[in-house]
Design goal:
Blueprint lengths: L15 H10 L7 H5 L5 H9 L5 H55 L4 H25 L4 H21 L10 H4 L4
Helix pairs in contact: 4-5, 4-6, 5-6
């Protein structure tokens, strides 16, 4: 305990609190897979593996290259799946909900129902934001993994917002709150 206490942290390792705490303790704060993989090419780690005959420098460097390439391929596949789900599953249903809301809005405005107009506006903004996020996702797939990861996060925010607005019967996937209670 005395020897390793500085690495024990019982808080949330994903918060800014941990970043500050790790820095205070003099610990590295590795935030991405690619950063973590770089440890394979650090001289001190290579020397340790060579000392005990586990792997030599070239094997460590090869392991790093293979893992980074695998990571890039997986992120690219995840980005493509994310784009395809948004484009082929979610967007059509959101557009359908928006079209339905436009019709409802026209009838509601003629009959003086309040609040429907704001709902229709929200869905319209959602359609625009989703279309833009899909376009960004498509262009990011031509670049490096950092752009793909960022585009996936942005697309997710848009979809999460729409999930709260689109009626349950029109949403094509299980909603987050529904998945919490699937046993």
């Amino acid at each position: 305990m005395k020897e390793h206490k500085r690495v024990i942290f019982n808080g949330n390792g994903y918060t800014d609190e941990w970043i500050a705490e790790a820095e205070r303790r003099g610990l590295p704060n590795i935030r991405t897979s690619v950063e973590a993989l770089k440890a394979l090419t650090k001289d001190e780690n290579i020397q340790l593996f060579e000392k005990y005959g586990v792997m030599n420098r070239r094997e460590m460097e090869s392991r790093y290259e293979i893992n980074v390439e695998d990571f890039h391929k997986r992120i690219h596949i995840e980005g493509e799946v994310c784009r395809d789900m948004a484009k082929n599953i979610i967007l059509p249903k959101v557009v359908e909900a928006y079209s339905s809301a436009l019709k409802t809005n026209e009838m509601a405005l003629n009959q003086g129902f309040p609040g429907v107009d704001a709902y229709v506006k929200s869905l319209g903004e959602g359609v625009k934001n989703l279309s833009a996020a899909i376009a960004t996702m498509e262009s990011s797939l031509e670049g490096e993994h950092e752009g793909i990861i960022e585009a996936m996060a942005d697309l997710r925010k848009v979809v999460d917002g729409l999930e709260k607005v689109v009626p349950d019967e029109m949403w094509p996937l299980p909603k987050y709150r529904e998945m919490l209670f699937i046993y």
